[in-house]
Amino acid sequence: MRVAVLLALLFTTPLIAPAFAAGSTGFGVAGQQQQPEPPKPTDEFVPISQLPAQDQLPAAPLLIAAYSFALVALSVYLVSVARRLSAVQREVDRLEGDLKRSGRT
């Protein structure tokens, strides 16, 4: 029974999905709205200055943000490691002092 339902969904979904994907309110063409045409793909190089404003993405701010994030993360990590290392060094110094006071070497 489950297999039959799954097979029915598998075969009917490609028939029904385009009606919903087009944004219609029901089945048929009457409820559909005109969708803007997607830009035509080009096989040639197009300079960024000739692209529409919504397609332009300046890389400099993103690059600066990425490097800033990486440097801040690295700095936080190094400070964390330095603090833990100093805590371990203090503990080793304390243990050495305890060993000297007890007469063990």
Describe the structure.
The chain is mainly alpha-helical and 105 residues long. It has a domain at 58-105. It is 61% helix and 0% strand. It has 2 helices and no strands. It has helices at 2-21, 59-102. The longest helix is centred in the last third of the chain and has 44 residues, at 59-102. It is elongated, with a radius of gyration of 33 Å.
Write the layout of secondary structure elements.
Blueprint: H1 2-21, H2 59-102
The computed structural class is mainly alpha
Order of helices and strands: HH
The poorly predicted ranges are none
User: From the alpha-carbon coordinates, what is the Rg to the nearest angstrom?
Assistant: 33 Å
Distance between the termini: 79 Å
Strand content: under 5%
| Total E-strand runs | 0
Average of the residue pLDDT scores: 77
Largest beta sheet, briefly?
Answer: none
Helix content: 55-70%
Shape: elongated
Q: How large is the count of helical segments? A: 2
